[in-house]
Amino acid sequence: MKFCPECGAAVELRRPPDDNRERHICTACAAIHYHNPKLVVGTIPEWEDGRILLCRRAIEPRHGLWTLPAGFMENGETTLEGAARETLEEANARVEMGELYALFNLAHINQVQLLFRARLLDLDFSPGTESLEVRLFDESDIPWDELAFRPVRYTLQDYFSDRKAGCFQFRITSLEPPVKPAQPAN
Amino acid sequence: MKFCPECGAAVELRRPPDDNRERHICTACAAIHYHNPKLVVGTIPEWEDGRILLCRRAIEPRHGLWTLPAGFMENGETTLEGAARETLEEANARVEMGELYALFNLAHINQVQLLFRARLLDLDFSPGTESLEVRLFDESDIPWDELAFRPVRYTLQDYFSDRKAGCFQFRITSLEPPVKPAQPAN
Prior knowledge:
The structure is a homodimer. Chain A has 2 domains: 1-35, Ubiquitin Ligase Nedd4, Chain: W (Single Sheet), CATH 2.20.70; 38-174, Nucleoside Triphosphate Pyrophosphohydrolase. Helix content of chain A is 16%, strand content 34%. Chain A is built from 2 helices and 11 strands.
């Protein structure tokens, strides 16, 4: 941020009184502009035979790799509505929302991801504009080496493990930046 | 938003290609500026005798009313770190973070609130700059008519009820805008 979104004057980085960190403050109107983490919301859509719906990404980052339907939460919606909307947008898929299953802290990219269990309501799905392909996968067919993001991998691993154990358990996971360039981003 | 934070030119509200809602787009550099919900993170700090730590607000909104320590999550931290930081800032209180206890969707104000169970580590607490007073309350002493926000009220009600039942249960609650001006804000 270089300019004030409200008046167009230059901003400077300065610590406001009674604050403990620097903020972008307008040099003309004195407005303080805060920058906060963003929420990514998505689903683990399960069909009645146990298969899981994944989307192959048509956009960067990680073009061509597989992911769970998820995306940035929008203003004016709930986390559940956002997750269902992303599932509809990316996979043209209708779901009945279930419980919150995973929360990922990605502090290095200022993101919190929430993934919900979801029941896929019909087989009338197809790629949305951000997907190349949408498919149901058995556990044994999951393309583990072609998953787009670490939260997708960890969530699927936990999900299948919990499902086998007969008990889904909500987890919070905090991820550090990927250490090797070869690792999935995010 | 009236001006582009990157180049200072005017922005206009327009739907970008491949998007389904209007965004603020710069008329000069074409940057698209997204606005997303903010996360509020906080704790339910419990002392070893079962009392809960509340803060009386020294700031608007709801100046003078009681709340759980909570505030806007900052970039570069996890939800757990943010909740612990807010507890330290508002109550100068150190906690051991516990499980996620409540998620509130407040779509009308573009907010998601996350409240965590937490164990208060010592009695060396005091009002931070945003608090007038910080106190431990027995369930029977909670100032129910002087609570600042609905999520605080609902969380405390559920918390005491769950504690009596011997089982804390994570809940997601979506709140509509308050109907009567007399109701607590938020």
